[in-house]
Amino acid sequence: MYLRPAFVETDLDRIEAMIRANSFGVLVTQTEQGMEGSHLPFTVARQGDTLVLTGHLAKVNAQVAQFQGGEALAIFQGPHAYIAPSWYKAQPAVPTWDYSAVHIHGTLAPLDDPMDMLETLATDDPGRFDMRATPEKFQQVMLAGIRGFRLVATRIEAQWKMSQNRSVEDRLGVIAGLRAQGQEDVAREIEATLPEV
After folding, report:
1. How many contiguous H segments (helices) and E segments (strands) does the chain have?
2. What is the CATH number that goes with domain 5-83+97-165?
3. Which of 45, 51, 145, 197 has its CA 20 to 30 A from that of 106?
4. pLDDT digit string (tens) for 89-143?
5. Selection from 100, 101, 114, 111 nearest residue 152 by Cα
């Protein structure tokens, strides 16, 4: 990812929180067919000064062949919104897009037992789904059809482009414009860039 210094984020707590809040990401690997991407839910955990992602794919997915040490990229997108030039006090101006994004690079390894990962995915289930409470034969069939993986981050790239390169007056105009359109999540992110009064 092209990282502009003004927008680079290095706070691991903030990066981890963004992944948790936007855990449906994209796993990209190189396969015999070329570059492949799968859209899937991830879990994230801290391991010292890095992050570990876990997830699963269908057993027949070509990317499963990369689970034995293959290089991978996981991509997560956070809040984003169109920024209208009319919201800026400083003119002339052009349209842009504010966003947050995280790229996690690392090496894949298989999960021998993906049950814990599946249970973590179900923690927010309103019906309190419990895979271990299902019949054992059902569990065996379901687990036989998937392959779990873990990806230990070797490089983390994060960018929070939230109008930090604009004046406070311009950012206040952007916040007002976003709130008028119901874009509260991005408005809050930009508001966090303002100096404390």
Report:
1. 5, 7
2. 2.30.110.10
3. 145
4. 999 999 999 999 999 999 999 998 878 878 887 877 888 888 889 999 998 999 9
5. 111
